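Practice problem: predict the structure.
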Amino acid sequence: MPKSKKVLESTHWLTGILSSLEMGIVIVDKDFTVEVWNQFMENHSQIDTTDIVGNCLFGLFPEIQENWFKRKCNPVFALATPVFLIWEQRDYLFKFDTSRPVTSNADYMYQNITIMPLLNDQGKAEKLCILIYDATDQAINKLRVEGLNAQLQTISRVDGLTGLYNRRYWQERFEHEFKLSIRNKSCVTLIMLDIDHFKAVNDTYGHQTGDEVIRNIADIIRQATRGTDIAGRYGGEEFVILLPDTSCENAITVAERIRKAVMGTLIKYEHHELKYTCSLGVADLHGAYTKSQEWVEAADQALYAAKEGGRNKVVIANTDSLNDE
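Answer:
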């Protein structure tokens, strides 16, 4: 068989193999001019081989950041060693639609990339072969698991009715902040608040209306506090707010803001309308507290004093006895 015929047959076989592979194959030279563009790349890019071979890769795919990609390819040319890019580092190299647009939740094809050197007779890399693997299923499955784990973590930390931290997780954060603040001698203040006559609300209007009142005060707390503040539902109708880097005076301002917002709210739920109030106790972190629970008890005693004093009040914890010790 003539040599030219053998070359044609081997080229035909090679073309058939490249077309049948379920991966993208792109070969570029040192100027990143495309020399090979297989059927996978044609199908997903909607660009025919004849329209891309001989053109620079970057001119047709602006999503590929030229400087970044050249840096990734430098060791392939210089050291003749492959480089691998995984979808966790960068979602894709070529922005293709997902291969299963109906059944997949992905907006695009996640890709794993291998960049291999193609050596000349002297063992120098003068071309690159870029292999593109569809990693969408792998990525979606991992992202779905991570999403479920995040949801479970949120569920374990958040009170279902209010969306604030539940008591267990709030206590964990509180203990951490207590130790940190003692060590750094930082200014931190605790607010405890309780809905006034809440049992009467439940008895008169029903527990669903009572739940609406609890949701309402949680919304007011969120609006009155900062993202760095740590608010939680401590009990049925009792709430706690830890205010880092906040003096007692500034915490009183926050407490009064909450009290006035609650007092000015009209709850409308189904056929019921009602107004309600809350009482608040404020305690800053005092140097005489050796345990976090002592701090909580000081705020709780201030809350009790607010209720005993007629409710709908803000009362500051009495630290005189601590100062005398």
